[in-house]
Write a structure and sequence with these properties.
The protein is an alpha+beta fold and 330 residues long. It is built from nine helices and 14 strands. The structure holds (3R)-3-hydroxy-3-methyl-5-(phosphonooxy)pentanoic acid (PMV).
């Protein structure tokens, strides 16, 4: 019996310029390029064991054995790895997140980035970071952005090979902090895989996509010049555009809850009063309050006074996917 094991850790990421909608759903080729920051302290750790005596792929997630759709999605991802790496073995996958799944903190991004990195490492294969991002993308589009370090751009591309992510700045380049106001830890009603398919049913999607490259250029320049005023304006605008598409899809997708909108208004007020903070939301009700490090404690303190906020998570810029000791996962 031969078994080969490796484990990897990858962080969740928060998109400043959002990915919403695919031109190719199977390959998860996005309609537009996107830009994000990895979130230190919010991660998935995944161990992959390829074994020649295993009869099927298995998945354990946060201690529970997973069957059905969850297992099928991981197995499909393993099929892509098997094909590229020339493997025939099944795999035992053990994974754990240290944050709630499916609640607007991108758990699938961290999970598929870690799964891809561990799967490749366990096979002993030599794969470039760029190629690894394309594999992660097959499992969950935003997972491509959890592979490189720090602030990351995902080029939309027009094929599997050209749709990849790369770092534009290291984690310590700019001391931004994501102060996440958790208002619902419930699993979101419509996951992003179905959401991406619905994007094209909104009349607004064409207009959102048309301006995405320009918004990305503005956001990237704001990050590279550490210009918070320009950054805040484009980040909130891009989030509003994505949610406008979601709300005008048929059937509509409303991820916001009443406290979501209340916190968005407060954040704008706090910024007008002098705090360097802006909001962005993924496919969930939680509000990601992005601020400069000096203002993070005050933003967090104010959020904690709100009765609708059940938890506040704070994340600085994180590193990319890395190989870790497998004994720490199992
Ligand atoms: O990678 P997915 O399929 O979970 O899609 C992520 C979509 C958003 O989080 C809403 C936006 C983004 O760019 O991360």
């Amino acid at each position: 019996m031969t078994e080969r094991t490796a484990a990897a850790r990858a962080h969740a990421n928060i998109a400043f310029i959002k990915y919403w909608g695919n031109r190719d759903h199977e390959l998860r080729l996005p309609m537009n390029p996107s830009l994000s920051m990895n979130l230190d302290g919010l991660y998935a750790e995944t161990m992959v064991t390829w074994g020649d005596k295993l009869n099927a792929d298995t998945l354990t997630l946060n201690g529970d054995t997973i069957y059905g759709e969850g297992l099928r999605r991981v197995s499909k991802h393993l099929d892509a790895l098997r094909k590229r790496l020339g493997l025939r073995d099944f795999a035992r996958v053990v994974s754990a997140n240290n944050f709630p799944t499916g609640a607007g903190i991108a758990s699938s991004a961290a999970a598929f980035a870690a799964l891809s990195a561990a799967g490749v490492a366990a096979a002993g294969a030599n794969v470039s970071e760029r190629e690894l991002t394309t594999f992660a993308r097959l499992g969950s589009g935003s997972a491509s952005r959890s592979v490189p370090t720090g602030f990351v751009e995902w080029h939309e591309g027009n094929s599997h090979e050209t749709s990849y992510a790369e770092s534009i700045a290291a984690p310590d380049y700019w001391g931004l902090v994501d102060v996440i106001a958790v208002i619902s830890a419930a699993h979101k009603p419509v996951g992003s895989t179905a959401g991406h398919r619905s994007a094209e049913t909104s009349d607004l999607q064409t207009a959102r996509v048309a301006g995405a490259a320009e918004r990305l250029a503005i956001c990237k320049a704001a990050i590279l010049s550490r210009n918070f005023v320009a950054f805040a304006e484009i980040v909130e605008h891009d989030s509003n555009l994505m949610h406008a598409v979601m709300m005008t899809s048929r059937p509509p997708l409303f991820y916001w809850l009443p406290p979501t909108l209340a916190i968005m208004a407060l954040v704008r007020q706090w910024r007008a009063d002098g705090l360097r903070v802006c909001y962005t939301l993924d496919a969930g009700a939680n509000v990601h309050c992005i601020c400069v490090r000096e203002d993070a404690d005050e933003v967090s303190r104010r959020l904690r006074t709100l009765s609708e906020v059940i938890d506040v998570r704070i994340a600085a810029p994180g590193t990319g996917a890395s190989i870790i000791n497998s004994s720490s996962v199992a």
